[in-house]
């Protein structure tokens, strides 16, 4: 207890001086450290200010460059878009031309079919597969071929219009996206540190802008433009084809129409001559009857000789139809067999027709021995059909350029 109540120890003067020196040095050290920290902070503030200004200027420059890039591609896309609109309108006009051409084929076809029907009313030997009928059948084939070709062309035009509209849709969508992107970047380029309403937005930017690289973005723009250019070229080629097709088909129909008209004129002249010569035929009937019988026999022999090759070809076709899976190929052998069957059948058919005509001729020769007046009436009927009915049917038909 006596120790606790003892007064504190006193320091020596040297200790007092030493303690003061220590305080001086500590204060100096802290002041120096504070000054260095203040200088470093000031340097950091100035450096961050310079960096911020530089980054903002660089970001603004890149935004402006990006806006220029978007404007450039918008102009390119808009040019292609306008081309697509114009091309679609032009192709629609071509479609209307093809549709009108298709409609204008109906009347000539009906007239041709009606002439064929009327000429079926010829009787006896005059019901012959003559040049007029061949030309009428050619005319029918030409018109039907033209209609099929025009219909196929119309389908191609419709498909091309669909493709052009598809390209136009994607161009329009790309233009809308770029318009919106340009507005956004324009807005961003106008923002300053003093702009109101700066709230920072979404603070998580790590995943933004990573979906498409600038190279991919430009490549997609080029892809849309390339598709547009490709479809435009396809459309131009199709229009050139349609122009050529319409001109050629009209020329074909006109040429065939004239050929059929010439065949009618020749046939009418031939019929008139035959009618005038009927009386001279009487003396030659017997000899002609013998010749016709020989002709009839040769036709029968020819038909009989064609039946075996036809059965061989048909048997080959039937047997080859049993080939398995992909081996059931429409190969050259199959094509040739089909052609052989068709040609043999056609030959038999034509031979059969000739046989029928020969038989009719024999009957006609026998009838004409008894009554030349009946044969004259047959010719009169044929002349009436060809010279009056068919002529009146065909006269109003005019083949216009499509």
TrEMBL record:
Q: Name one GO biological process term.
A: cilium movement involved in cell motility
Q: Where in the cell is it found?
A: Cytoplasm, Cytoskeleton, Cilium axoneme; Cytoplasm, Cytoskeleton, Flagellum axoneme
Q: InterPro entries from the entry? A: Tektin-like, Tektins
Q: Which GO terms describe its cellular component?
A: axoneme; microtubule cytoskeleton; nucleus
UniProt keyword annotations, A-Z: Cell projection, Cilium, Coiled coil, Cytoplasm, Cytoskeleton, Flagellum
Subunit details = Microtubule inner protein component of sperm flagellar doublet microtubules.
The record's family statement is:
Belongs to the tektin family.
Q: What does this protein do?
A: Microtubule inner protein (MIP) part of the dynein-decorated doublet microtubules (DMTs) in cilia and flagellar axoneme. Forms filamentous polymers in the walls of ciliary and flagellar microtubules.
Protein's name in the database? Tektin
